[in-house]
Fold this protein.
Amino acid sequence: MKYIRGISIKNYRVLRDVSIGSVTPSPNPHDNMQLPFHSGDPLMPLTVVIGRNGYGKSTLCDAFGFIGDCLRSNTEHACTLRGCFDDIVSTGQSKQEDRKLEFQILYDNILYTLCIASDKYNIPYVYAETLSHINPAFNNSNSMNFFASNGEGKVVRSDSESVSDIKLADPRRLVLSTLGNLNQFPDIVKFRQFLDNWYLCYFKPDAARSTPLIGSQRHLNSTGTNLANVIQFWENEHKDRLDLLLNSVIKPILEITRIETKPTEDGRLLLRFFKSDNNRPFYAPQMSDGTLKLVAYMFLLGDPDPPPFICFEEPENGLYHKLLGTFINEIRKHCSQNNGSQFFITTHQPYLVDALKPEEVWILEKGNDGFASVKRASEDTIVRNMVAEGMPLGALWFSEYLDAFDENN
């Protein structure tokens, strides 16, 4: 499976200089990026980040969304959704040349870098952007790379033969968003599709209680407003898969024996739930927040064509704590599939961490300068040894072996 092996983020709010996983420096000597070299072990299919409030967990998730917004629109729009460029760039940068947002993603054999600065009118633009195959022989010598600055650059093959020039009319747009739509650059197209298909979960139970218009939909949206439409799609196209999900997962956990949709006369779609001890249906507005959330999560994990990357921010909210281990187990089953997704989760819940391995957990801390740093739980010898002896990782976290609590901080 192809996964994100590592991510580096620089100057994004509290994340002034943070790297997780394995990230290598850009191979282009003319590249202006100054992201740190981090040669640690790559990320796992499941990555969970813990830490105190205000230490950067939500900011990490938002950084993924920011990259996606830049790709689908442009840098100015992505910043405007979050206030403005000054609201995003880390504070304390006295020199204009240091006020840049910098991102680096190592995905399989592709290293992608993105640097965003602001002009004299404080309008954000793409200062530098590169896409390189770090091991051309891994694919073939015809792999396409690009190097651009201020909207201008070149597309080159991995054998260093120049192919074409790049000159964008709008420096706020990503080169990736343009080249990623051209069939002559298939590997760039695939990487763009990978980023564009990231799923950032902002599920809201009240949104799932709405009655959408009739019409099946393949994929659950980020807030869950189309949960009924997705279940209608499963009823029409994947009835056997729906029955398997109900009988093997949802029924044992929630005692729900049947889920079905019912069209109304005015063209809307009702979502109905049946329990084993009652033939009377319960409608979505009658179901608890936790039930709706878990049902939505299970349909997301059961998607026949799942997104390549799924980000959950504190998925435990509203869920019974003893179900969190089951939730992680279902994620592991999903990851083991040939087309399984990669998961990135933030949490405050030790019961969820109990189900994890030390190499899957990253701990955000904050230095005296007010900026975040991160370490992997498996880097701590004591933690590794205690887990090997049978101590649950969440219990170690609760006992302050992972992030010691300072009442004066």
In short: The chain is about 30% helix and 30% strand. The first helix runs from residue 57 to 72.
